[in-house]
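Re: Re: token formats

Sure, here are both.
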Amino acid sequence: MAKSKSKKPFPRPVKTREDDAETDEEPDDLLLTLSVDPTTDLSSTRIILTGLSLVGIGMLGFYYIPGLMVADVDVVAADDDEPSKNGDRWINAFYCSAITLTTVGFGDICPANPDLLGRVFLTILPLFGLGFFCGPVLSIASSWTSQVPGGAVALGTLTIVVAVSALTALEDMSISDAIHLTVITGTTIGYGDVTVKTDEGRLFLAIYAILICGMFGAVLDVSKTFLEALCQTPAPKKRRAVNKKKRD
């Protein structure tokens, strides 16, 4: 019998350095694509207009829907010619709109005793506010605060100092209460233990809440970086040696 010829193994393609270079370039290109700055497509003008629209919608809701503000259920002053004890209704509506959209929610003058329509409104409005301030506002604030000398920390500190000075003047607060209120507002906790009482104070705090939320988000990036460094697990010695060998 004739011996069967032994089949030669199929030759494997030889991997060249050029192939290695191509495979190494692919992840780099992918990472470059994924690391595109998301703020490049954001328009400051559109963000401002969107924010004003949300605040306006909130104001109209709080002003016209019954039972959303404490002024709607409180007894007015004894003299019918005097305004409500709770201040100007439009300023209260602006204050409640800003405090709701920023999700601070002090609960001092709103909500009062809303009906079904009021509860639906109070359920939907914060969803838009949370998406707006945690999305476009936070993204664009992180981009432009990095261009300020001293960064977000310096800008946030300056804003708090100005707010504390204004609150002590407008509301006759102590410095400790004013600092507490500004920080609790900036972090959107909103305990409600210290609040403003006058029209001027509510108007100022509403504007401050809108401005400080984006800034505080950028400030919290600093604490986030610090805490992440504390929580990282050191790489084992063997892994560090392998990584060092790869780099060499």
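Second one below.
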Amino acid sequence: MALDKENAKIKSKAGASLYLTGIGSVKTRIHVEGNTSSCVAKPDCAYRLVVRSANNDTDPNTFIQLIQFEVKKNERRCEIGKINTFKGSSSGTEQLIEYKAKRYGESSYLLSFDPVVPGEYGVFMSNPDARDEKRMIIYCFSVK
């Protein structure tokens, strides 16, 4: 079954305290319209996804991300970074789902991961050669 292909936006937003006092944080999130995916998987089973790439010579953990979304109003979002005045920066690793990957054919990877809690999920590939980081494609699915 093919996953939903969605256009995502990357947005950064500063907290009000940063503007008022100069102390605070800036969060960067991925946003996808709609609060759920039409591609639904069952909970409590092992999952496998085939992800196509230009080739399969690179470690997939360096550029393929499997994330869990937070649903807010009519959109799904995932924090991918945060910069704080005193604590420095961090990446949104708490919303990443661990997976195992192996080569599949000549230009794909087979991702496998353990059962996940019900919710909204997405897979995206970061491209170090990409020039436009404001727009990305995310393949989405729901676990219900």
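Residues 16-21 form the longest helix (6 residues). The first strand starts at residue 4 and ends at 14.
- S.
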